[in-house]
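TASK: fixed-backbone design
INPUT:
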């Protein structure tokens, strides 16, 4: 009884190692792309629920006086306006003992975005969170 040996050379190519390399490269690029942080302010946009917040919230309103082309700043709905230079001092006094300092910006539609950004810069300097209030559609 003669035993025959079969030595056939297979002409195929295994792609499993190539797919592993592509998968590892994909993971690498996903991880490194999340490390790139654009220079932007993070906003907490309000949700349109009818729930009332249990914590006290500080609000800063910007009113546009179109007839005189001026803007007034009001804290917590106070009718007496304060100058912009006082806004940061007032916010620091109101938010100094809170564990999660947050304030809301309420701006007229006609207020230029640069006025809103000035308030956001105050929040960034003091590490406050900002909520930009909008009207429901």
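OUTPUT:
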């Amino acid at each position: 009884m003669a035993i025959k040996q079969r030595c056939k050379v297979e002409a195929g190519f295994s792609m499993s190692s190539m797919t592993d390399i592509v998968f590892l490269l994909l993971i690498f690029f996903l991880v490194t792309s999340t490390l790139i942080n654009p220079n932007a302010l993070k906003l907490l946009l309000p949700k349109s629920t009818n729930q009332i917040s249990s914590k006290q919230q500080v609000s800063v309103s910007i009113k546009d006086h179109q007839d005189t082309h001026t803007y007034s700043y009001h804290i917590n709905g106070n009718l007496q306006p304060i100058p912009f230079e006082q806004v940061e001092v007032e916010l620091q006094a109101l938010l100094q003992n809170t564990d999660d300092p947050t304030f809301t910006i309420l701006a007229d539609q006609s207020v230029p975005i640069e006025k809103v950004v000035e308030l956001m810069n105050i929040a960034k300097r003091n590490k406050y969170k900002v909520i930009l209030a909008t009207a429901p559609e």
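COMMENT: The longest strand covers residues 58-65.
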